[in-house]
Specification:
Largest sheet: none
Distance between the termini: 33 Å
Structural class: mainly alpha
Strand content: under 5%
Radius of gyration: 16 Å
Shape: globular
Length: about 160
């Protein structure tokens, strides 16, 4: 059911605006500078949680940062050290990545895509630094600005 009221429209506008600003900043850094890759497709779905549902445990900075880092790292390990057919490597790396997000209590559902991205893209260890670490920090910067300073929400929760 469509929920049309002034508060919902304003929230949706801000979520869309900050999602565009954040992804736009990452895109400009990626394509208009020589600083490297900052953009990961899974960051797009991170915007849904970070801006739309910041009270979710999955949207907390620890989860966003380490969820992306753990799953990308697992993808790089599988890419470089597990010599199985790609369809098996992708499936196992996603499962192992999710396993470790749960074990380390850093669950961030969008990060579940990172092993797929890493393996299909043939990413190196450098991928962990840029875009994963620096990109996540930029995403979190914009998340804190919107949630804490503009919307005056208690963010992060812990």
């Amino acid at each position: 059911m469509i929920n049309i009221n002034k508060n919902n429209i304003f929230k949706a506008f801000l979520v869309g605006l900050f999602s565009s600003i954040t992804i736009g900043a990452l895109t400009v850094l990626t394509y208009k500078t020589s600083l490297g890759l900052f953009l990961v497709t899974s960051f797009g779905s991170s915007m849904v949680l970070l801006y739309g549902f910041p009270e979710s445990p999955f949207a907390q900075p620890k989860n966003i940062f380490f969820g992306h880092l753990v799953t990308a790292f697992i993808g790089v390990l599988f890419l470089n050290f597990i010599s199985l057919p790609i369809f098996i490597n992708i499936a196992l790396s996603v499962g192992v990545g999710i396993f470790f997000m749960i074990i380390f209590n850093v669950i961030h559902p969008p990060a579940g895509a990172n092993p797929i991205i890493v393996i299909i893209g043939g990413a190196s260890y450098e991928y962990l630094i840029n875009p994963i670490i620096f990109g996540s920090l930029i995403v979190l910067f914009f998340g804190v600005v919107l949630n804490k300073f503009i919307l005056k929400k208690k963010y992060p929760l812990k």
